[in-house]
Design goal:
Elements (H helix, E strand, L loop, with lengths): L13 H8 L1 H7 L2 E2 L4 E2 L4 E3 L4 E3 L4 E2 L4 E4 L5 E3 L4 E2 L4 E4 L3 E3 L4 E2 L4 E3 L1 E3 L7 E3 L3 E3 L4 E2 L4 E2 L4 E2 L4 E2 L4 E2 L7 E4 L4 E5 L2
Parallel strand pairs: 1-4, 2-5, 3-6, 4-7, 5-8, 6-9, 7-10, 8-11, 9-12, 10-15, 11-16, 12-17, 15-18, 16-19, 17-20, 19-21
Antiparallel strand pairs: 13-14, 21-22
Length: 180
């Protein structure tokens, strides 16, 4: 007899079903909002006319999505965005299809000005490929590309490009393995 346990995700609750009902509103407000996508109780949605959400995306509670003038956020199809995720763009931020952003992930193509901290500026576009997994509380900074199928460990700070299929961890993130 096996001692392995099967993990079963809870059935969608009332918040999920209420969020599905807001889909038509989001379709009118966002640059694009794919069928079957759901945003459950967001903390902040700013610049939604510059945000595109693909089909079948699940975006959970307390998410902060902000696209400043000149910036954009694009989520591919079937992207999972966990609780407390923060995506902030002045330069474009793109997330590929079938990608998971675990709880607390922070992705930004912005930084505060050194002489006037109330001002922000772009730090370069961010591209996160298809089938990428960003572990809990990972940070991805501007000007970074994460290749298809890569894995970023929990708490890692990604300051440089990550090759396709690589596994990185640490602060700053460094290669620790590969799926190849």
């Amino acid at each position: 007899m096996s001692t392995a346990r099967r993990v079963v995700e809870a059935a969608p609750g009332l918040r999920w079903h209420l969020a599905r009902a807001r889909g038509p509103l989001y379709r009118r407000a966002f640059a694009g909002f794919g069928p079957g996508s759901v945003i459950v109780a967001p903390l902040a949605l700013r610049g939604v006319e510059r945000i595109t959400v693909g089909a079948g995306c699940a975006i959970y509670e307390r998410v902060w999505l902000q696209a400043e003038a000149g910036g954009s956020i694009t989520l591919g199809d079937r992207v999972y965005v966990g609780h407390d995720v923060h995506l902030h763009s002045i330069d474009p931020v793109g997330v590929g299809s079938d990608t998971v952003l675990a709880d607390g992930v922070f992705v930004a193509s912005t930084d505060h000005d050194r002489s006037d901290r109330s001002r922000v500026h772009g730090t370069g576009p961010v591209h996160i490929g298809d089938r990428v997994f960003l572990g809990q509380r990972a940070v991805v900074l501007g000007g970074v590309t994460i290749g298809d199928g890569a894995t970023v460990g929990a708490g890692a700070v990604v300051t440089r490009d990550v090759p396709a299929g690589a596994t990185v961890a640490g602060v700053p993130a460094r290669p620790v393995g590969s799926r190849r």
